[in-house]
Design goal:
The chain is built from nine helices and eight strands. It has about 210 residues and is of the alpha/beta class. The strands form two sheets. The chain has a five-stranded parallel sheet with strand order 2-3-1-4-8, sandwiched between helices. A three-stranded antiparallel sheet has the order 6-5-7. Helix 1 packs across helix 9. The structure holds adenosine monophosphate.
């Protein structure tokens, strides 16, 4: 199973990716998580990416494409993968096609989680993330429901950054819907539903 998850920030890509990984044992490849780890560890990539991320802008394609090329070659990705947050531009999607060709792999689906904009804004502003294990929760979670870690608000989930992230999505990432439609890979899913219902629809659509 090789799948791309598309959707605006806050559409539930991370949550659905984790459920797919639990069910199918494939690799969860989240460029956002990889970049946040790089920032935390103060690596060269982290230092290059931080200012873009803080502003809610996209990190340059060249950095992300190199990161993804290395990640797709790792052992766990050979069992299949869920790409969460990549590609985010047409240039990244074209590069992904080339990388997969070189690896003798192909995509089975590009799942687009669709959701009303007002729900997205509400979700992003109330979203909290475990500083220890990355579990996604809400402002009602006093501590992480999974590991007990501290739940924090991502800097880019603060109100001043949310609007920019949504503008960036509309301008740079939404065109990928047409890109994958053109490849006959697009699977639209209604994200305005309970998490488990979204997952049930998603599973039915890809199985
Ligand atoms: P996410 O957790 O997927 O919302 O990503 C958080 C931030 O990381 C984004 O707002 C971007 O700054 C950066 N980022 C993640 N994935 C990509 C990507 N594929 N291309 C460019 N920037 C990315």
């Amino acid at each position: 199973m090789n799948i791309v998850l598309l959707g605006a920030p806050g559409a539930g890509k991370g949550t659905q990716a984790k459920k797919l990984v639990d069910e199918f044992g494939v690799a969860h490849i989240s460029t956002g998580d990889m970049l946040r780890a790089a920032v935390k560890n103060e690596t060269k990539l982290g230092k290059q990416a931080k200012a873009y991320m803080d502003a809610g802008d996209l990190v340059p394609d060249s950095l992300i494409i190199d990161l993804m090329r290395d990640r797709l070659s790792e052992d766990d990705a050979q069992r299949g993968f869920i790409l969460d947050g990549f590609p985010r531009t047409t240039a990244q999607a074209v590069a992904l096609d080339t990388m997969l060709d070189e690896l003798g792999k192909s995509l089975e689906a590009a799942v687009a989680i669709e959701l009303d904009f007002d729900i997205i804004v509400e979700r992003l502003s109330s979203r909290r993330t475990c500083s220890n294990c990355g579990t996604i929760g809400s402002k009602d979670d006093v501590s992480c429901p999974k590991c007990g870690g501290e739940m924090i608000q991502r800097d880019d989930d603060k109100p001043q950054t949310i609007q920019n992230r949504l503008d960036v999505y509309a301008k740079q990432t939404a065109p990928l819907i047409d890109y994958y439609q053109g490849q006959d890979l697009l699977v639209p899913i209604n994200g305005n539903q309970e998490v488990d219902k979204v997952f049930a629809d998603l599973k039915e659509a890809i199985e």
